[in-house]
Design a protein that fits this description.
Shape: flat
Number of helices: 14
Number of strands: 5
Helix content: 55-70%
Order of helices and strands: HHHHHHHHHHHHHEEHEEE
Distance between the termini: 37 Å
Strand content: under 5%
Radius of gyration: 35 Å
Length: 385
């Protein structure tokens, strides 16, 4: 609802701006035409018997310009635009707190690690000059090995974007064992792209030779895909008009290019998404909740900076959930090795410490907080996420 109101206000301001700009241009054009007409009259060839009365022309021009009242015409639309801008600014201030420092919490960061994260972020994005600048300014980092690996990755990906698969094929062959260990058939997919290119642009004999040499070793693990590729041989040179034309779709190249980037990072022991990007994106999503919390607690004259745990949950999207966690619905504590989640006979789940409190340290039965069922500590089983 808030975003809808802001968008409507923005659309109104944009409409006012266009009207103001259009009106201003119209007035300027009108003034320009009068001036050009006066100049043309003055510069027109005249005989000695009929000289141009320049003073009269300028007087007439002045009269016409006064009749246009350009300033008055410009003032109206400009005032309306300024009024809309003022209202829009107030609306933004209402919904968006310009001072986000209230949600800031003093944390002692390790400068070495922070510099490393920033430099790694730029290397991951392929911005090697920026990464080098960070390292040179920090003066204490040595990310040469990581830099070389990300440079190799970007060279492979850039080559794939121009339909050059040789670097990718070389990398896949060199890392075949590691890819098999993580259950990836990426090397087969890369060979598939190359095979389709051979089928379309080469001869049937060339395609068959390529299939025997590079696809056959993967056939037993990719039987359906292998059979489909063999069917392509019947349409060598005319694959675009065959039942297998979908294999030529650029979408295959895009998906396999992205998958190669992901698997490259996996084998490198790095996440595909930059940790810095993820942290910033998560912070932006959680910022409204933190600002609201800071304002509420400030009004109650309470300090939230020293709290070990936030009194309200900060909801983030599924893209920020990297592993399963459990928060006890009674104590609001997050499950841990010392305080694991426990399954009650009624199938409700509480943390171990909550169960111990309810059972008076296992001395009696207790009632589940969420249903009438009773249980003992011995009846509860630990859950593993």
């Amino acid at each position: 609802m808030e975003l809808s109101s802001i968008k409507d206000a923005f659309d109104r301001v944009a409409k006012k701006q266009k009207l103001s700009s259009s009106k201003s241009q119209e007035v300027v054009d009108q003034v320009g035409r009068e001036i050009e007409q006066a100049l043309a009259t003055i510069q027109a060839p005249n005989g000695p018997s009929t000289p141009v009365d320049q003073k009269s022309v300028l007087t007439d021009l002045k009269s016409k310009l006064n009749a246009i009242v350009a300033l008055k015409q410009l003032e109206g639309p400009q005032k309306e635009l300024n009024l809309s801008l003022s209202k829009y600014q107030k609306l933004l201030e209402k919904y968006f707190n310009p001072d986000i420092s209230k949600a800031y919490r003093n944390v002692d960061f390790d400068n070495h690690i922070v510099n490393q994260i920033i430099a790694s972020h730029f290397y991951r994005q392929g911005l090697f000059d920026l990464g080098d600048s960070i390292i040179n300014e920090a003066g204490v980092l040595d990310l040469t090995a990581l830099r070389l690996k990300f440079m190799e990755m970007h060279q492979i990906l850039e080559a794939m974007r121009v339909r050059n698969l040789q670097p990718a094929l070389t990398w896949g062959s060199a890392n075949r064992d590691e890819l098999v260990k993580i259950g990836s058939n990426l090397e087969f997919k890369i060979h598939t792209l190359q095979f389709v290119e051979v089928v379309q642009n080469g001869t049937r004999a060339d395609a068959l030779k390529y299939a025997r040499t590079y696809l056959a070793p993967f056939a037993h693990l990719n039987k359906d895909d292998f059979q489909k590729l063999m069917g392509c041989l019947l349409y060598a040179g005319r694959l675009e008009s065959s039942p297998y034309s979908d294999l030529m779709s650029p979408a295959h190249w895009e998906m396999i290019t992205e998958e190669l980037g992901r698997k490259f990072c996996t084998l490198l022991g790095q996440s595909y998404q930059s940790p810095l990007s993820v942290a910033v994106a998560a912070g932006v999503e959680g910022l409204p909740t933190l600002l609201k919390l800071a304002n509420v607690m400030a009004a109650k004259k309470q300090e939230w900076q020293a709290m070990k745990q936030l009194p309200v949950p900060v909801e983030l999207g599924k893209e920020f959930q990297f592993h399963s966690i459990f928060v006890c619905p009674v104590s609001r504590d997050q499950g841990s090795e010392e305080n694991p989640p426990m399954l009650l006979p009624c199938l409700h789940v509480l943390c171990k410490q909550s169960i111990l409190k309810l059972s008076k340290n296992s001395t009696r039965t207790f009632k589940c907080p969420y249903c009438p069922a009773e249980a003992t500590v011995a009846n509860c089983r630990q859950l593993h996420f």
